[in-house]
Amino acid sequence: MVEPPPAFLPILPDEDDAAIAAALESASVPALMAAMVHITGDVDILRSAIRPKPPIPGEVQGFLTPDEQARVRAQALDVLKAFRDGGCRLPPPPSHETLRELIDFVAGEALPEEYLPMMLEELALSGDERQMDWSDVPAAKRAGLRVAIIGAGMSGLLTAIRLEEAGIPYVVLEKNPAVGGTWYENTYPGCRVDIKNHFYAYSFEPNHDWSEFFSQRDELFAYFERCADRYGVRDHIRFETEVRAARWNDDASLWQLEVCGPDGRVDRIDANVLVSAVGQLNRPASPRSRGSKTSRGQPSTRPSGATTSVSRASVLPSSERAPAPSRSFRRSRPRWSTWSCSSARRHGWARTPSTTTRCRRERSGC
Q1: Does residue 68 sit in the same domain as residue 117?
Q2: I need a surface site. Which of 70, 142, 296, 359 has the fewest CB within 10 A?
Q3: Lowest mean pLDDT among 41-55, 119-133, 203-217, 262-276
Q4: Which position has the higher pLDDT, 276 or 1?
């Protein structure tokens, strides 16, 4: 079985104080304060006058002032230097009470008790709690089961990885020539995830190198490609193979699948278990309009000087060039949503601490 990457990466001896300080400049300060408690065991770090407010999409600093952020980063530099020089040794895992305080602190408010098990499972401080123990099932019995998985997107790959770990035979049927599902099929400009990347990843395969909080399509596709190779499931995937029909044979207690391969030949596959991981965003409903089938088209972009008028929602494109001003006519106050602090700074938008429905234009960043 493939060993998952460590929950944290040690600071290398050649990473000097300047390298640590540079990395800290892009850190989320509330999360940084929680990490310092984990490293030092000192819960008093959370009990100072510096406390984040509840976060909103696109705001990762808990509305802390620049001075508060600078003070925490200076403290974190001292903590991480000592951690590096001491061999990157962590203390025992935090107690249940400390974890409860950590979670409430980062959230900026007390969360309901029922949230805690999910948060602890995500943290995986005691290892991958979602990994199933199949030791009580004889290996011969596991080897006699056959599973068919439809789709090699995020869910299909996860199912395959868990079956690989359990030693259960399986086949993944993927209609595309690559894994990734929606992240293979959707390539339009600005395509990205709408969930923070540290949540949108497998708990056993954390990625410490996301370039954005809401990463774009190419980075997400590369992540799932890497997972397919790392966990040895690619050899079990039949690419360019589409499931035409699936019927349950009650007499044989089997699923009987009709599949069409890349050569157009139709085969039948029998499986004891059928897992549908087909997703929801891979069958586009294209509008029917005159000339749509003959137009060569171009990627959708916003022309310079364009004005946008909408009644409900306005989606502004990401662009490295400063776009022309956009005007939105609405019946009520707008709610602005930015995908990342970097894009917010590039376009000059930042939220005010006092409200989530007002927005001011400033160049000082998030």
Answers
A1: yes
A2: 296
A3: 119-133
A4: 276
Residue 75, number of CB atoms within 10 A of its CB: 16
29-40 helix and 96-107 helix, angle to the nearest 10 degrees:
170
Q: Quick one: angle between helices 66-85 and 17-24, nearest 10?
A: 140
* 315 and 322 Cβ atoms separated by less than 8 Å: no
65 and 157 housed in the same domain: no
The C-alpha angle 351, 35, 46, rounded to 5 degrees, equals 75
Q: Are residues 276 and 164 in contact, defined by beta-carbon separation less than 8 angstroms?
A: no
Considering the domain architecture, whether residues 362 and 235 belong to the same structural domain is answered as no
Name the nearest CA neighbour of 202 among 174, 219, 227, 229. 227
Q: Among 70, 50, 47, 52, which residue's Cα sits nearest to residue 62?
A: 52
Least confident of 125-129, 196-200, 271-275, 329-333: 329-333
Q: How many domains does the chain have?
A: 3
**Predicted confidence band at 287 (pLDDT cuts at 50, 70, 90)?**
confident
Which residues span the domain enclosing 346?
334-366
366 plus 261 within the same structural domain: no
> Look-up: residue for tokens 């003070």?
71
